[in-house]
Design goal:
three-stranded antiparallel beta sheet; alpha/beta
Length: 336
């Protein structure tokens, strides 16, 4: 099966499963699971932060991070297409009583500084929520957000007295694509949520990194959000294995996405809109979307061609260069 729907569909490799089976365990709610402790320390060190905290999901990691920065009635500035705003169930508002202030993205995925500045609320005026935090995302729809912009945006935020948070679900993709260490990608931010269940291939798991004080606050919120796990080392071991073995190989996913984009560009009825890191966005001839989805599914290629907008195709650990050629040939055959 070739599954292009997301990089979340990967399955643990045999070596990762063995690491999970053999992991030393404790009770993480009591703070003594040695594999969780090791993971948290390893990720914090690589990210250049004081501390880390393991979460079962990126959504919960992001939410606890936002709640550690903001109190009831506070506001965070966020992209209107950002995951923390659009795709995480409104958790910041519902569970954190934090008001999101969505900002329209620039074409490169950044949030223009002039739009951010216009959205900051007057201090001390009880009519308004208190602007407390700027949240960015990198990569964004596969795009590497320019380092110069990130530095300018976080510098601006600090000048306004705002904290900064990065949704780094695919920050390892950003690091590999830029040729920079993870710490460079995380340095401008007060907190970063780092996911292991996407390109790195772990079945679940994210780590929130930041200062000891912030992670202490997030730890309490994690408990309230139901994120306290017992023998969580079984899961943390998969993340540790991914950290040690699956980071550099993300470059293969990026190259496979590029090769897939090049192959699809030569097919009538396919329009390649963009390709960045391990994601490409394409448009198929509208009248052929349903039949193409069904035909590819019968050949063991999972995707969902959609009407009225781009179809996202994502390469990952379980897709090889040979698979890319098989996909291109199958699309060409069915659209001929």
């Amino acid at each position: 099966m070739i599954d292009l729907r997301s990089d979340t569909v990967t399955r643990p490799t045999p070596a990762m499963l063995q690491a999970m089976i053999s992991a030393p365990l404790g009770d993480d709610v009591m703070g003594d699971d040695p594999t969780v402790i090791r993971l948290q320390a390893a990720v914090a060190e690589r990210a250049g932060k004081e501390a880390g905290l393991f979460f079962p999901s990126g959504t919960q990691s992001n939410l606890a991070g936002l709640m550690a920065h903001c109190a009831r009635g506070d506001e965070y500035l966020v992209g209107q297409l950002a995951h923390t705003y659009k795709y995480e169930g409104g958790g910041a508002a519902v569970l954190g009583s934090i008001q999101p202030q969505p900002i329209e993205h620039a074409p490169d995925g950044s949030l223009p500084l002039e739009k951010l500045a216009a959205a900051v609320k007057p201090q001390g005026d009880p009519h308004f929520a208190r602007t407390r935090l700027l949240a960015l995302e990198n990569t964004f729809h596969g795009k590497l957000i320019p380092a110069g912009y990130i530095q300018a945006a976080t510098d601006w935020a600090r000048q306004q007295g705002l904290a900064t948070h990065l949704d780094g679900a695919r920050v390892f993709n950003a690091a590999v694509a830029s040729g920079k260490p993870l710490a460079d990608m995380c340095q401008p931010f007060d907190s970063v949520s780092i996911c292991f269940s996407k390109g790195l291939g772990a079945p679940v798991g994210s780590v929130l990194v930041g200062s000891q004080e912030l992670i202490g606050r997030a730890h309490r919120w994690r408990k309230m959000l139901g994120g306290g796990l017992r023998q969580a080392g079984v899961l943390a071991a998969a993340c540790l294995y991914a950290l040690d073995h699956h980071v550099e190989r993300l470059a293969e996913d990026h190259e496979n996405a590029r090769a897939l984009a090049e192959g699809l560009r030569g097919i009538a009825g396919v329009k390649v809109l963009s390709q960045d890191t391990n994601m490409l966005f394409v448009e198929f001839e509208p009248a052929r979307c349903d039949s193409l989805t069904a035909a590819l599914g019968e050949e063991g290629i999972l995707m969902r061609a959609v009407y009225g907008g781009p179809t996202r195709l994502v390469t990952h650990l379980d897709i090889s260069a040979d698979d890319v050629q098989r996909i291109v040939q199958a699309v060409a055959r069915h659209l001929a």
